[in-house]
Structure formats: structure tokens, C-alpha cells
Amino acid sequence: MFPSFTPTNLAILALALSSGVQADDKAESVSTLSFKNSFVSSGIVPEVIPALDPAVSFYVTYRADDGHNELLTPGSTLTLNETSRLPIEWSVENLNNATNITASTRYLIYLLDADAPSRSSPTARNLRHYLAGNYTLNGSNSSVLPTAQRLSIPEANRRPFTAFTAPTPDPNTGIHRFIYALYVQPPRFNSSGFESVGMEAATGNWNLSRWRTQLGLGPAIGATYFTVDTGLSVNGGSNNTGNDGDKSGAGVLMPSGYLSGLMALGAVVVGGLVLV
């Protein structure tokens, strides 16, 4: 008996075949409550941020080491090879649960290291690896989770405020938690950059609380995170606390120079981070 195919499934199959990449056949929806609980069990809440109450399920799709496009679930442990380039796509579910959302709403996304330069001494906890606005729903579904709607940036607005910098934590600095967050973009930035309100391009001394105030942002409507395990922490102890993810073998081929890069950026101690 032959399986039945919907137009959506056929489109996804054609995309996978044309690219030579197989999609994640185990991808499943994650509830907003599970996202919220994962941030608590990982220690990100309240250690890094005081609270998270997501309105949407926010997904990241990345290229796995085995060649598949995989859906990132909160707390997944990735290798540096898997985190070395921009995600394949971003997508959302349950968007109707967010307030003040229309078909023309734009969104902004960032990626930061919550444990820079180490889990035991996160003196550069605001290190920003990516920041871009003007994301919109592009009218298509996720290639790995057909129930999720894809977010993309129109061609005319594709220059990010902070270009993607791959996570490269130094060896033996413990488990690093990297956070992706999704915000509704205030309409004033649809035609002007973040620098128009005094935001600096430097990534090493970014203050999230001040940034939210500068841009007039509401709470994050969605967030997820992954971990990179570099081995023992700098104080010789293990940092295997919280949710260490659902993959093993991370932390292979650790590039050096992470700490020197932070110094070059003028990283400073920033406490009391606020994400939402």
C-alpha cells in the first residue's frame, strides 16, 4: 500500500531531494511550557535571566554532522562543527498566542553565549554572536516540521546588525549555553537600524537590559538554547549541571583564541542580565 502525500509533504520531499540533504524524520512539536521548563531545568532561569514565559514555540534548524537537517530542541548539545554556520532556518508555532501580531509584523533574533568565557566565571556573559531584525513570515512551512511557519529576511533587508560569529569556546571551560531569542520588532526599526537609538556594534560589552530599553522591546516571545561541552571547567570541576541535551560527542576539535578574542572586543563584567 502506497503512502498518501499532501502538497506540503511533496514540497518538503522535493526540497530535500533537490538539495541532497535529508530532513529530520523525528522532528516533533515542543510545547511552550516545555520551552519554559527547559530554561528552568538548565539553570538559565533564574541564574542568567529572571524569567521566561514564551508565547510561541521557537525553532532553529541546523545541519547535523551526519548531513541531516535537524530541529534544535531546548538543551540539545551540539558539536562546534554543527554550530559553525548560520542555521538552515528559523520557524515558529503557536504564533496566534502572541499579542499584537499581524501578517506584516517583523521580528528580530539574536544569539548569545551565556557562559563566556567560562561557565564558572562568565565575566563576558553578554557576548553576542548574532543579531538581525526584519524577519517576517515568508508564507512557507519549515522543511523539518511542517506545522511550523518559517521566518526569513527579505532580500532588501538582509544585512544583520551583528554578523554571525560561530561559537568557539576554549577547551576546558565547561558547558556553554547559547541562547537564541525571538522578539517582536518595533515598527520604527522597519526603516532604520538599531544604531539610530545609540546601540553600538561592539559585541563584547552588550547590556541586554539597556538594549531592551533603547529599542523599546517587550518580552521575548520565544527562546531556545543549545549547549557546547568543552570538558572540565577552568576551576577543575565538572559543569555538568542542568539539562545537558540529547546528543553526545560534543566538544571535539576545539578552536583556540576564544579568550583573546574577548579581550580584543573589550569584554567587561556585566551582571543582572534580563532577557524578558
UniProtKB/TrEMBL annotation:
<dbReference type="InterPro" id="IPR008914">
    <property type="entry name" value="PEBP"/>
</dbReference>
<feature type="transmembrane region" description="Helical">
    <location>
        <begin position="257"/>
        <end position="275"/>
    </location>
</feature>
<dbReference type="Pfam" id="PF01161">
    <property type="entry name" value="PBP"/>
</dbReference>
<keyword id="KW-0812">Transmembrane</keyword>
<keyword id="KW-0472">Membrane</keyword>
<dbReference type="InterPro" id="IPR036610">
    <property type="entry name" value="PEBP-like_sf"/>
</dbReference>
<keyword id="KW-0732">Signal</keyword>
<feature type="signal peptide">
    <location>
        <begin position="1"/>
        <end position="23"/>
    </location>
</feature>
<protein>
    <submittedName>
        <fullName>Phosphatidylethanolamine-binding protein</fullName>
    </submittedName>
</protein>
<keyword id="KW-1133">Transmembrane helix</keyword>
<dbReference type="InterPro" id="IPR035810">
    <property type="entry name" value="PEBP_euk"/>
</dbReference>
